[in-house]
Amino acid sequence: MVGLITGIIAACIYIYPVFLGLILLPLDLLVSNSAPWLLANQILIKNSYMLDSIIQMYPWHRLTFESLTKGIIPLWNPYQIAGMPFMAGLKPMVFYPLNLLFIFGEIPSWNMLMFFQLFLAFFFCYLLMRKLRVFVWGSLLASVAFAYSSLMVGFLQFGSDGHTLIWLPLLCWCLFSYADSKKGRYLFGLGIGVACSVFAGHLQMAAYEFGLIAVLILYLYRIKQASKKDVFMICLALAAGLGIASVQLLPSIELFSLSARGTGLTQTLFAEGLIRPYQLLRIFSPDMFGHPATGELRIGYIETSGYFGLVPLFFTFFAVLRRKDNVIVKFFFIVCVLSVVFSMWPLGLLISFLRIPVLTSGSGGRLFFLALFSGAVLAGYGLDIFIRDQDNKMKLRSAIFYCIGVILLILIAYLSSTYIGYYGATFRNLKFSIAVITGLSVIFLFYFLLRKKYRFIDVIFLICVLMVSYVDLFRMGYRFLTFSNSKFFYPEIPVIQFVKEKTKDTLGRTYGLTGSEVPTALRIQSIETYNPLYPKRTATVLKALEGKEDRDYPTNVFRFENSKRLKYVLDFLGVSYIATENDKNPALTYLRSIEFQNDFTKVYTDERHDVYQNTKAYPRFGLFYDAVSGLSEDSILTDIRNKKTDLSKTVLLEERLTDVLTSGTGSAKLISWDVNTEAFAVTTDVPALFYISDALMPGWKATINGKTTHVYRANYAFRSVIVPKGESTVVFAYKPSTFRVGIVMSGTSLFFLCCIGFISFSFAKKAGKKKER
């Protein structure tokens, strides 16, 4: 009960501005840095580092919110890079259980999601520490250190990443609890925790968690002398948890295998993200090398910052120093050291060279979160040991050496940055750490002077330790996080409304109005993306349209270069509206040439924007009566790259058509569409090829008048079907087989997990009866 109440209070205090009507998102960055708003001179910027949260992460969350509240599972995102799988991207967290919060509305549910990350991280860690027989005060310190560490707070406004991490202490608690009691409910909790950590959206970190759990199982097998049957039951529960997550995992694995990132970029990403040894100094001061809010940061802030408080750090060291023989302390100390070592350059390169899918698919520095978690656990042990330890001289020496050592370290950093080479260690950035270590020194001073005179001094000491720890991490978070007025929440200004109205019946795409994943939030179709899992096939044909070879795919952001060749891209992809700043010629702005200026007609203007219609843009969908079939992939790419065929009249196909196309006339009209489906009314006087410049991925099905028909891959990456003479209704629907199989596997695994829990309960009950006899 103590952990529950304290966790709620701590989280509410931490996000108290939301109770004043604000939202925990850096919307100041959105409206000041992102088109079409660009209010750079009208709003104060707090922290420019968190731009990704509102131009990438939240747009995905918004599409999830809008779709689920309409009863639609968003499997596809039609708004980015000619369309791509959405749910399979993991980060949208489509199946995460806390999406039930959507019943409270978009903004309240987001703020509540932030609250539950802080609260559940705190509460789950508290449960674990109490299970490890650490007393209340030590458990509270560990919970504060874990829930409010630099990584957890840094990930907070991303939504998904931090929620992946909060399940680790729960998984450990379930393991220890089952090892002690053999009760089936802990196996059930273990399986659900595994599934939730996958649904939370960061598979790389979830994989690291599962690796730790696997090692912990082996460790428990030795120290708890668990039977092989118990280990087998635990493994079954873990497998069932992964099975429950199949509805997410199978589509995600498929997308990863078809993405550019899944075909050659992982090693570079992992190696570039490794922590450099000198960056470990930030465990003593998170702002050792500057801070985003002050503008002089020289290195990444979130994943290379391992700060969980100067106060908990002391007790981490103390636990290792005084209880090396404790098996739990020894285990988490080993995990902490190995996590530090292999998240750093150069030893982390050993993992990089293994090129293990998922584990090496992102920044190598993310492995460091296991060190933060282990450090927090050790801090709880350390405070427990410190209070119980009777060797006062040892405690005094440890406190003196630690405080003096940290002060000297901070002083050296300040002097070297001031007089040798500037790297951000200014007094403004270090003063918080100075204040904390000074406060800790005073607490230690009064503790050692008064503990023999007053019995209650231990309680006062413990309260002060917790308060200083929380205030330290609270200060760190508030320097970093931004709470914003909801009026800046993706406001729909007139130019947005104009474009949406003009394209709603034509599916026309827009260019230049906004970038990254913001079109997803605004429900405007675009041709670029900030999703690193963009399909390789789509990227290949887009490069061919630019006249480039299919190599050197961008790591994260897929954008087009401003050149004359961009006109071909815009026309082919059906980009019917081009936005510019007032009085800017789109031909000069984007194409770097006046050659095509007559192809653009101004159709909208306001105090900041002009919108031009691209009169030569190909229709997004329509009927074709000419096609070249039986071509190889390379020949199609070469044709597109060299502009040999007029693709406004002819479609290039890999498969051979069974029907012979002849000249004819007809029309196609959009009936309805949502994220997963598109329906068209088609009329033609002869059989024709219906084509739409939306990406074709495994899972797209088509029906004509209710009957399933074959979908041809057209122009290397897009969709087409043969429609018969007369009137037809053509419906495209995205129904990937991996999703359907995943649903069956998830349901079966949930049933299996319940059976595991029941069987384990029966075994425990029989064992109890035998003991009674």
Q: How far apart are the termini?
A: 36 Å
Output the radius of gyration.
29 Å
Shape from CA axes? globular
Percentage of β-strand residues? 5-15%
Sheet having the most strands: 5 strands, antiparallel
Give the averaged pLDDT, no decimals.
89
User: Which spans of ≥5 residues are poorly predicted at pLDDT below 50?
Assistant: none
Decide which structural class fits the backbone: alpha+beta
Strand arrangement in the largest pleated sheet: 12-13-19-15-16
Number of helices: 27
Number of strands: 19
Name the descriptors.
single chain; alpha+beta; five-stranded antiparallel beta sheet; four-stranded mixed beta sheet; 27 helices
Write the layout of secondary structure elements.
Layout: H1 2-14, E1 22-23, H2 27-33, H3 52-68, E2 76-77, E3 84-85, H4 106-131, H5 136-147, H6 150-156, H7 160-165, H8 167-181, H9 184-199, H10 203-223, H11 228-244, H12 246-258, H13 266-272, H14 310-322, H15 327-342, H16 349-354, H17 369-388, H18 392-419, H19 427-450, H20 457-480, E4 484-485, H21 494-503, E5 509-511, H22 518-522, H23 536-545, H24 566-572, E6 575-581, H25 586-591, E7 600-605, E8 609-614, E9 621-624, E10 627-628, H26 633-642, E11 651-652, E12 666-673, E13 677-684, E14 688-695, E15 700-704, E16 707-709, E17 712-714, E18 718-723, E19 726-734, H27 737-772
Parallel strand pairs: 5-6, 10-11
Antiparallel strand pairs: 1-4, 2-3, 6-8, 7-8, 9-14, 12-13, 13-19, 14-18, 15-16, 15-19, 17-18
Helix pairs in contact: 1-4, 1-5, 4-5, 4-8, 5-17, 5-20, 8-9, 8-10, 9-11, 9-27, 11-27, 12-27, 14-17, 15-17, 18-19, 19-20, 23-26
